[in-house]
Amino acid sequence: MRRVHREAHLVARIGWLRAAVLGANDGIISTASLILGVAAAGATKSNILLAGVAGLVAGAMSMAAGEYVSVSSQSDTEQADLAREKRELLEDPEAETEELTQIYLKRGVERDIARKVARQLMSKDALGAHARDELGLSEITSARPVQAALTSAASFSIGAATPLALVLLSPSNLLIPFVSVGSLVSLGARTGGAAIFKPIIRVTFWGALAMAVTAGIGALVGTVV
Ligand SMILES: [Zn+2]
């Protein structure tokens, strides 16, 4: 019996992976910056923690809302494309068969075979064949708003938990260096995987900049208020 070779590709997880990485980085940078801003203004540790927790909840909710809205509009577009395709298949199946044939021809298939494949796929599942080969929509890449929203909120919260934990662990007089260095290190650590150097530099630079600017403003406000 021929052994089926199973391959685990990452592409199937691309949808939520992207949302997760963005969410985690966002959680670290925005919550660490908020904490540093409040700390630089001279707040007590309990007030810093309170601000951090409020930042985590607010950030997670807004990430979820933003992701849900953007992925929903992607899903709406996909549904509209599929509805139009369905109509075209009903109105002119011959032209749609030729369209599919042309797609396979362009991929290097001989005309007769291309036509045969197009006919067979259309008789089995015409909409599925056109969705996949003409519109580029597949089960793997189709928009899932709720999944994306939940992934974003969860990964933002996990990201935000890092600077919050650092506040809890740090001695009060070393809170600012503790939170800034610890958060930057965890930003770099999350960026691992393929070609790590550039992304680490990129995310650390922007993270450091966000934290420095917020701490500066916090210090300023702290002296004025
Ligand atoms: Zn079509």
Record the SSE blueprint.
Elements lengths: L13 H27 L4 H47 L1 H14 L4 H23 L11 H25 L5 H16 L6 H28 L1
List keywords for this structure.
single chain; 225 residues; mainly alpha; 80% helix; binds zinc ion
Contiguous low-pLDDT stretches (5 residues minimum) are none
Helicity, as a percent range: over 70%
Q: Helical stretch count?
A: 7
Broad structural category: mainly alpha
String of helices and strands: HHHHHHH
How many β-strand stretches?
0
Number of domains: 1
Characterize the overall form. elongated
Percent range for β-strand residues:
under 5%
Largest sheet: none
The average pLDDT is 87
- Ligand list: zinc ion
Radius of gyration: 25 Å
Q: Termini separation (Å)?
A: 78 Å
Folded structure, characterized:
With 225 residues, the protein is mainly alpha-helical. The chain has one domain (10-89, 123-224). 80% of the residues lie in helices and 0% in strands. It starts with 13 loop residues before the first helix and ends with a helix. The mean pLDDT is 87. The structure holds zinc ion.
Produce a short descriptive summary.
The protein is mainly α.
